[in-house]
Write a structure and sequence with these properties.
heterodimer; A: 107 residues; alpha+beta; Arc Repressor Mutant, subunit A; 3-stranded antiparallel sheet; 5 helices; 3 strands; 68% helix; elongated; B: 142 residues; Alpha-D-Glucose-1,6-Bisphosphate, Chain A, domain 4; 7-stranded antiparallel sheet; 4 helices
Chain lengths: 107, 142
């Protein structure tokens, strides 16, 4: 994965409305823009704009059917973030071990 | 997993230590003690105080973590920002008295890109980041 793609990913998920849209798609499966707008609490043009950002980050894919565009989540795109968090998990577990041995040594 | 986005936004580590909260608090807030288990630092438990953690630099990483103290509630909560390689996050420590010791919970959350250009190379940078830390830890253990 290119750094630019990872950057798009983090940027896409930094916005709470976009996260909510993305989470809605992961929970409910494929949705139309109309359905997403009902849940998002923002206007349809705003939802469409957010979907463009999510698409650029490869977090969602779309397909057209008649006049409706359907979106679905691509959880694989979370890979870089998952890697990052997995590494930090390992880091903190090690630090906890070190903290524990320090506590054992302290008065 | 019903909510992959939420489950990948935070790191949570919890452990019960057989030590009193007073002692755990000291280990989390006294700079020389923090240096012994985490990293060299100029931390002071003062809200809004900026400080740094410093590890040996690694390729693509200057070894510096920029922080700012957000919450200091003695024996209970400690929180600071954690910014490195252009990624911003928040570390929150919560201590709770437990049977015979202290329950310690560390949550690192809110991962998001910062304004700095240092983010470039992120998909490789973090490997070096941890590689660098491992070296530091190895050196300390020796």
């Amino acid at each position: 994965m290119k750094p630019a793609t990872a950057n798009n990913l983090f940027r896409a998920l930094a916005d709470p409305t976009r996260r909510a849209i993305y989470e809605q798609l992961t929970r409910q499966g494929e949705q139309t823009v109309h359905a997403l707008t009902r849940h998002a609490g923002v206007s349809q043009p705003a939802v469409s704009k957010h979907l463009v950002v999510l698409k650029r980050a490869r977090l969602v894919r779309h397909r057209r059917q008649g006049r409706e565009t359907h979106y679905r989540a691509q959880p694989d795109a979370l890979g870089p973030m998952a890697d990052w968090l997995r590494l930090y998990s390992a880091f903190w577990r090690d630090q906890f071990d070190r903290l524990e041995s320090l506590l054992d040594r302290m008065e | 997993m019903s909510d992959p986005a939420a489950s990948t936004r935070a790191v949570v580590i919890e452990r019960v230590f057989p030590h009193q909260p007073e002692k755990v608090w000291r280990a989390l807030t006294e700079s020389p003690l923090v240096a012994q288990w985490l990293m060299k630092n100029d931390f002071e438990p003062v809200t809004r105080k900026k400080f740094q953690f410093r590890a040996d630099p690694a390729p693509n990483w200057d070894g510096i973590i920029d922080c700012e103290v957000l919450v200091v509630e003695p024996l209970k909560q400690l929180s600071y920002t954690w910014r490195s390689m252009g990624l911003d996050s928040v570390v929150l420590w919560t201590l709770t008295p437990a049977d015979g010791g202290t329950h310690v919970r560390m949550e690192q959350s809110g991962f998001r890109p910062g304004q700095t250009a240092a983010y470039q190379g992120a998909s490789y940078g973090w490997q070096h980041f941890f590689g660098g830390l491992e070296r530091v830890l190895g050196g300390l253990a020796a």
